[in-house]
Design brief:
The chain has helices at about 40-50, 70-75, 90-100, 105-115, 130-145, 160-175, 190, 210-220, 225-235, 255-260, 270-280, and strands at about 5-10, 15-25, 30-35, 55-60, 75-80, 150, 180-185, 195-200, 205-210, 220-225, 240-245, 245-255, 265. It is α/β, with parallel strands linked by helices. A hairpin with a 2-residue loop joins strand 11 (about 240-245) and strand 12 (about 245-255). The structure holds adenosine-5'-triphosphate. Adenosine-5'-triphosphate (ATP) binds near residues 12, 35, 38 and 40.
Length: about 280
Amino acid sequence: MRIDVRNVTKKYKDTLALDNISFTLDEPKIYGLLGRNGAGKTTFMEILSGHILATGGEILVDGEKPFDNQRLTESVCLIKEGNNFKRELKVKHVLRIYSLFYPTWDQELADDLIKEYNLNLNSRVKALSKGMASALGIIVGLACKAPITIFDEPYIGLDAAARRKFYEILLEEYESEKRTIIFSTHLIDEVSLLFEEVLIIQDGKLVLKEEAENLRNNTCAVTGSAEAVEHFIKDKEIINKKELAGMMTAYVYGSQEQAEAAGLSVEGIPIQELMIHLTEKKGA
Ligand SMILES: Nc1ncnc2c1ncn2[C@@H]1O[C@H](COP(=O)(O)OP(=O)(O)OP(=O)(O)O)[C@@H](O)[C@H]1O
């Protein structure tokens, strides 16, 4: 499904959470939506899911507005970091409700995931540990197979092994049937290899939208004498640079081969680092 974000602004009283952002997500891909605390990510995901209205501008999903739109509600699933389900319900009832709601629901996958995460179907949501509540969110997010599935920091309390299992299954499911997955997380290093495209929001504005492969291939950290590095970067777009005792490291757009050819020491820039530097540059 195509997502058109057109001049979207969201104000909460005095806070400008989204500041006139526009972009298009036109292919089923795994998108990483990144940014510092309070950047506006959750606000964006809630507008896209039809949970709240924008103050100005619009988000269109296949040309339609998501708010109060039954057809789109069945096509978009948002899993947040907590409070996804009514506390009094039993796990089996949550699963039943979602299975009836989403026409694309995959019960076989849900059953496999329940076993994988050892969930007790008769537990009430309020009795689940944080990790178990996250596991339930992940099961719903994966098994609903909604054409647009959004995970907003979905795994609070899940241990590293359970998170890894989630990434594996997410990827398997995605490979077998492509859909749009928007993934927002602060554990960027852990998941960045899943991302096909990266969006970075800072202070309600979009500061980067780029294919992850382009970022990996076209950005690098070059280190050498300050003089050599300055010479190499003089015609390049610089993300950040640091100098210590005559040695300089610069993060730049440019291929690693070029820097190696110039005799500099070169490394890739992890997406997490890139996010930190890009958002620092914007005054974070
Ligand atoms: N319901 C609300 N009422 C008032 N202000 C809000 C509300 N929701 C969000 N905000 C404010 O809007 C801004 C953007 O918040 P948002 O939750 O979208 O950011 P985020 O990028 O998801 O942050 P985090 O990574 O910390 O979850 C913040 O300044 C936040 O305090």
